[in-house]
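Worked Example 4.2. Consider the chain below.
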Amino acid sequence: MSETYEKEIVQHIIRNLLDIQLLRIIQAQPTWGYQIKKQVELDFNVKLRHGALYPALNNLAVKGFVESKRQRKDGRARKVYSITESGKIYLETYFNVLQGRLGRIKTKSE
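Applying the procedure from the previous section yields the following structure tokens:
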């Protein structure tokens, strides 16, 4: 039964916190869309559709959290995403808030 819940929770996280997951992947190393898609699928065992990935990446760019540059590799042009300073601050703030909230929940239940 817990496997069913685990899969449901992971899918919920991916759907609702996709921007955080994308920033985390891009922060580790500048990369392109297909590579990001494969990393999400590897990390979470869920299929990420292009229709969800690219609008999310564009939204992160509009917010100033990522920037992209066209690069050529093996004759192919790729749009490589890298995290900005604002993106790093946003990601760090997210983890600080999450840690603070979880800490409060833990102390209340003890």
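The longest strand covers residues 66-73. Residues 2-109 form a domain with the Arc Repressor Mutant, subunit A fold (CATH 1.10.10.10). Compare this with Example 4.1 before moving on.
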